[in-house]
Every structure is written in C-alpha cells, then in structure tokens.
Amino acid sequence: MSIIDDALSANATLADGYDSDRGKPPAPRIAVVTCADPRLTAVVQLMGLPDADVDLIRNVGTVIDEDAIRSLIVSTKMLGTREIMIINHNDCGLSRFSGDDLAERLRTETGSAPIAPVTFFTFTDAEQNTREQMLKVRSHPWIASDIPVRGFLFDVGTGRLSEVQPIESAAATL
Ligand SMILES: [Zn+2]
Q: Is residue 7 in a domain?
C-alpha cells in the first residue's frame, strides 16, 4: 500500500472522532505565512493559538510570491484577519542549494527549458530574506496599511521565535 492508501484507510476510522463544529465557516484572526518544512507544522501550537484563529499559508521557503500575496489579500479582505506574521526558519531547505544550480541540473537531465518557475527563491541569509518578504507584503497596495506585518525566525532546535526588524528600522539603526 502507498502512503496515500494508508492515509485513506486511517481517515475512514479517525473521522469517526471528528468534531463537526470544525466545519463551520472560518473566522481566523491572524494570517501566518511559513515554510512547508514539517518542522514548522507545530508553530501554531507553539504560539498558543487555536487552529481556528490562524489562516495558515505555507510554501517551500516562506516566499511572498504572487500566490502568497493572493492568499494574504483574500485573508485580510475576505476572511477578516487583522495581523500578518511571516515565519522563516533556520536550516531551511531553500538555503542549502542554489536555485540556479538546480535549474541547470534539470535542464540537463530533462533536455527541457520551461518558462516557469523563473526562480526557486533560494536564499543564504534567512534574516535578510525575511526582511525582503516583509517588505513585499508591506508595500503591496492591496494589503491595508493598518494591518501589522511582522517577521520572525523560528529556531528548529529550540522551538523559539525571534523577531526580525523590518528594513526601514534596520536602516534607521545604522
Ligand atoms: Zn524552510
């Protein structure tokens, strides 16, 4: 059996204990953008937030790309979230290889040069990368200026969050 088959089999039993109240329309209070890395799955729990309060937006590398912005606009404008957290982390997979190298390898292996993805959004400095993602959200005209946009690094070794100052503040302290 595949993992998917195992999961379906488990679901048939585990759903017996499902609380049907969880099927009511969501009213999350905060949007959290974080990495798809399995080690980040516990971050909502580690912040003491109920699942229902969090609109969790995940992709590989905590990237504010077109799709993440789309989700954040819907989150703040339609679902009613009032704050945005961007949670990057140390030891991210996207800091362990070069996107250009991967693209080159895939071009060689497949003999194809597709037009997308243009970039894999790899990075070397998680803190600086987080600042850039914060700026992308903050400067988007369809994200209201009264919505706080704060960035953090999650330490996968300790489970603790540390705040990343936005580019404006970082520049001001130089
Ligand atoms: Zn990651």
A: no
Give 31-47 pLDDT, tens digit per residue. 999 999 999 999 999 99
CA 66 to ligand 1 centroid distance, Å: 18
For residue 75, what is the domain's CATH number? 3.40.1050.10
Structurally, the chain folds into a number of domains equal to 1
DSSP 93: G
Rg (CA), the chain: 18
Ligand 1 centroid to Cα of residue 130, in Å, is 12
| pLDDT tens sequence across 53-79 | 999 999 999 999 999 999 999 999 999
Question: In this structure, is residue 11 part of a structural domain?
Answer: no
Q: With respect to residue 53, please indicate whether it lies within any of the assigned structural domains.
A: yes
Ligand 1 centroid distance, CA of 12 (Å)? 31
Structural domain that includes position 127: 26-168
| Buried-state track 15-48, b at ≥16 Cβ within 10 A, e below 16 | eeeeeeeeeeeeebebbbbbbebeebeebbeebe
Distance of CA 126 from the midpoint of ligand 1 (Å): 10
